[in-house]
Structure formats: C-alpha cells, structure tokens
Amino acid sequence: MRLSPAVALQAPVLVVSSLPQVEGSRRVTRRLPPFPPGRAGSDAADVAPLAPIRKSLRRFWPYTRGLRRFFVVGVVAAIVATACEVVAISLFGRITDEVLGSGDLGAFWRPAAAWIALAAVAAGASFASAYAAAVGGERFLLRLRDGVFDHLQTLTPDFFDNRRLGDIMARLTDDIEAIEELVVSGLIRLITALISVVFFATAAVFLRWDLALVTFALIPAFVLVSKGFTGRFRKAAARERLNNGVMNSAIEEALSNQALVQAHNRQETESERLHAAGRGWLLANLAQARLSALYGPAVQVVETGCLLTIIGVGAWEIASGRLTLGGLLAFAAYLAYLYPTVRGLGETALTVSEAAAGSDRIIEVLDTPPAVAERPGAAVPVASAPSSGLASPGRGLVEFRDVDFTYPNRSRPTLSGLSFTASPGELIVCTGPSGVGKSTVAKLLLRFYDPTGGRILLDGVDIGEMPFHTLREHVTLLQQENLLFSGTVGDNIAYGRPGADRADRADRADIVRAAVEAGAHDFIRALPQGYDTPVGQRGRLLSGGQRQRIAIARAILRDTPVLVLDEPLTGLDEPTAQRIMEPLRRLMAGRTTILITHDLRLVPDTAEKLVLEPPRSPERPRPFRLSRRPITRLQGVA
Ligand SMILES: Nc1ncnc2c1ncn2[C@@H]1O[C@H](COP(=O)(O)OP(=O)(O)OP(=O)(O)O)[C@@H](O)[C@H]1O
C-alpha cells in the first residue's frame, strides 16, 4: 500500500518548484503466498520467512552490475535539482525583503531571472534523475526475472507438481517488482532523501543556526513514529501477499478447470471459495490501510507541532529585532522541504520493508535446490550422437540395474530392485496395476529424479554422469496427457526440433513430412489455416486423437534413439486407438521403446513385458516383482 505524499508543510511551496522525486515506486501489494501446496483457501497459514533487509540487498545487489551508472546519474541529477531548490529558496527570502518589503521593483528582475534559470535547471535534472532511475530499474527487473526463471527451469517437474501455478507466476511478476523497489527505486529514493536532508539542514543552519537547532531537536519525533510503524507494516504486507495469493490461486484453478466445474454444477462452490479468499484479502488489505492511514496523521501532528514551535520562536526573534519577516519566511520554506523529506525517509523505510516481504519469497525460490543436479564435468556418451535418429547397434541401449526409488516425501519405496535391459531398437512394454510405479520408470530415465539405489545406463554410461541436455537429446517422452502450447499446429510440431519452424521451406518440409508419417497431415490440411491454425490453450481446439497425432509428429521430428511412451492410448476409443497405433508403430520402428501401459489390448502377446507388481504383504522386503518374457522385436507389433 503506497503512502500519500507529504502535504502538511505546503504553504511556502508556492515559491519554488517541488522537490525532485525519484519515480518508479510501483504498487508493491498484490503478492501471492509462499509455496505450500494444496487448494486455495486451505493453507493461508505461513508467510515466507522475513529475511533481514540487509540480507536481501546483499543477495540482489550483484544483479545491478553494469546498471549502477544509471543509479549514479539518478542520484547526482536529484542532488543538482535539490541544490537548485535550496538556492531558489534563498532568492525567495531576498525578494521578500528587498522587493516586497521596500516596494523597489527594480530589485526584482535579477533574482527573478536567476530563479527562472534555476527552475529550468531543476526541471531538467529532475527529468534526468527520474528517467535514469527508471532505465536502471527496468533493466534490473528484466535481468532478475530472467535469472529467477532460469533457476526455476533447473528444478524438476516435481517442484511444479507440488506448487500452485498462480503462486509461482506471482513470484515472477509482482515479487520481482518488489525487489526492484527494494534494491533500486527504494535505495535511490533513500540516498536522494538523505542528501536532500543534509542540503536543506545546512542551508537552514546558514540562515539561522539557532532556529535550525530547534528544528533538528524535533527530528527524533519523526524517527520514533516511523520506527513504530515499520515492523507492523512489513508483517501486514506479508499477510496481504499471502491472502492475495490464495485469491489468485482460487481464480486460476476455477477458470482453468471450467469444464469440470460446469459439468459438476460446482459454480456456486467455486464462487464461494473465491469470495472467502477475497474476504481474506480484504481483511489483510484493511489492516494495511489502517496502518497507512494512521501513519500520515501521526506524522502530520508531529510536523504541525514542529512548525508552530518554529513560528513561535521566529515571532519572538522578529519582535526582538533579530530577524526579518523575509528571513522567517525563507526559513519556513526550508522547513517546508526539510520536514517532508524527513517524513519521506520514514515512508521509504515503510515501502522498503513492505517490498522486503516480496524479496523473501524470491529468495525462497532461489534457495530451492534442484532435486537432481548435474555432476560437474559430466560426459557425453561415446556411443551416440544427438539427434542422429534411429537406433543402430550400440545406440539407444537402456539398462536399469537393481534400481530402488522412494519419492522424497514418501516413506515406502515405489520401486525396488528393478533390473531390465532394452537393447537398441527393442520394444519393452512396462505394465502393471495403477499406482505401481510405471510412470516413475520414465521419470527416472529422464532424470526427473535420481534412483535411491542402483544405476541407470544409456549406451553403457551412467545417466547420472551425463549432462542433462545430452541425456534428453537421446530420449523422447510422449506423455499420457499430450501437452501442446497455444501456438499453431506447425509451431507445436516444430517444438520437437528447435529451428525447424524457421521460414525456409526445407524446415517446413520437415514438419510436413513428420505430420504425414504421424498420420496428421490430412486433418491438418482440413483445418481452416492448415499448419498455421492456432490450437487454442493447451491444444483444446483439437480432439484428443488429433492432439496425439501432433505429439507423435513432434516426436518423429525429434528423432531420438530412445522413446518412452506413457499410456499413449489412454482416453481414446477403440477405433481411434487403432488408428493412432499405426503412426505409433512407425515412430517406434528402429528406436528403443519403453511403452508404459496397463492397457494390453493393442500390444502383441509376443512383446517383452516388464510387469511391475504391488507388494503381496507389508513384510515383503522388495515390494515389486519383475517378470520377463523373451525379447520381441518391435516389428512384431501389429
Ligand atoms: N511426485 C510424487 N511424489 C510422491 N509420490 C508420487 C509422486 N508421483 C507418483 N507418486 C506415487 O508413486 C506411486 C507410483 O506412481 P506412478 O505414477 O509411477 O504409477 P503408475 O503405475 O504409472 O500409475 P498409473 O497407471 O495410474 O498411471 C503412486 O503410489 C503415486 O502415488
């Protein structure tokens, strides 16, 4: 919640232009909550830990490398503008005494011309200050967002499965802006305000040291008020962010599942959930607004007391003949800048402490280590070259050797002592009842997790020793739920091979060739804009079978020696499944394929099967059993 600008001591301000303000103080509210999983409204318990502000500054300061010159320009220009203000105020005193007091119009022109010139310089400096700070701030934002996003992309899919999407997105947007507020705008405002205080205070001492001393003696009152508010403000801001996150998650979840909501007649429930979350946000906002509304008047009372004290002392000085009216007015004009600037310092402290709540949430993301790390100096396997396509002897050999695996947040193992070998070009059907761990085999092969025991090898090299990029260049995963982006049909196929969608004809020809092989070309041609037809959000403008064919075309274009098909026929009716089987067979031909399915309708009896079985009793030390049958080549799949 932003605080309103100073208003109490505005009376003499008519003599000079306003103090340069460094713009860019964004609204730092509307943050989302930290990472606890679960549905909106269920978990508004904790906010991210409140790291000390200094720690936040230290953490994010390196991101300002190369941008600090903009901050320096911002501060220096603000100082120039402030200096102009200081001189202009003394001109105001001169005009009052020499022109207004004596009625001598001739003495007016010189100080008036100087004043105009100063105002012009101050205006230019203010512009330079605000713009330089904005350039530095925006570039900082871009860099930090890129950095946090890059870090997020090092985290395994499991990280995202355990968190709410709305929350992660809010961290990438609002919370990063909050850090900009803390590290860039807030800091520049703080430095500028401090320098301004020194300027105005020095000028006040030169004008009337005795009145200046009285003025300074009153400053601790501002500090006390500001101190009383800072901690409360930060807590209120963190609470507001948490509740806002719960509300955004409620919106995101309800809108992204509208078909489910409407089909189950749960609109009212979702509306109530949003209302409850919105109410939580409202209360948190009101708590923040209360603090903000209290802060302004509290400071105004202090300011008014200070001003009246100075006027009283000044009146006594005038009555004793030691001060002119122009002198008192000029002094009051300095006060009109000094006190609001002191108050501005307090406000900056509040804004910065509020923004720190956002930085806590980003630090929490950056401190989350990837569940699976790439080993330093990881080596590329010798036997295969990326994107070299179909398996040949010695390429695409997959071996699981006595693999155990337990999910990090589970106590019971999911896989135990799993061993099998898939030779280049072979098909292995991984089957078993639901929840037995079939998809987990795929996750381990792609290193979304590391096994808790045993080894997985690709072409004789432990995948734990390989760079992620190399491993994933060799394995294509075709998932149960076909994931498409909201681009065009062509974009989605081209996603399999970066660069394939560039404008040159050969690449487009590759896309078409892949679509033909996937049996997708005919339906794509029948779409209104052919390959340029948008597929809608997550491909929802297409049917399940069409989405599946596009995913197959993408996999064909990707052309890797190893293929993992995770329930590729789920959700498709028998005729569609039969039709999809044909292009799938073309895709599998010559590649090492692990076909994960519990539906053996379309799998020939002769195919080698890896049957995962649940434990027969809790005492059984190895909860799963592996059954093997003689190896069958893919060509056997009809
Ligand atoms: N990210 C996870 N964290 C914790 N446990 C998980 C996670 N993913 C899966 N599990 C658990 O691991 C077990 C195996 O899950 P997996 O998805 O591998 O089963 P599956 O055999 O593929 O099931 P289905 O045939 O229903 O898709 C299940 O009991 C599941 O609840």
From TrEMBL:
The keyword Membrane applies. The chain crosses the membrane at residues 70-92, 112-135, 187-207, 213-230. The keyword Transmembrane helix applies. InterPro entries: AAA+_ATPase, ABC1_TM_dom, ABC1_TM_sf, ABC_transporter-like_ATP-bd, ABC_transporter-like_CS, P-loop_NTPase, Type_1_exporter. It is a multi-pass membrane protein. Its main location: membrane. It is found in: Cell membrane. Residues 613-622 have a biased composition (Basic and acidic residues). Residues 613-638 are annotated as: Disordered. GO terms for cellular component: plasma membrane. Residues 398-634 form the ABC transporter domain. GO terms for molecular function: ABC-type oligopeptide transporter activity; ATP binding; ATP hydrolysis activity. Keywords: ATP-binding, Membrane, Nucleotide-binding, Transmembrane, Transmembrane helix. It holds the Pfam family ABC_tran. SUPFAM superfamilies: ABC transporter transmembrane region, P-loop containing nucleoside triphosphate hydrolases. Residues 72-354 form the ABC transmembrane type-1 domain. This is ABC transporter ATP-binding protein. It comes from Planotetraspora thailandica.
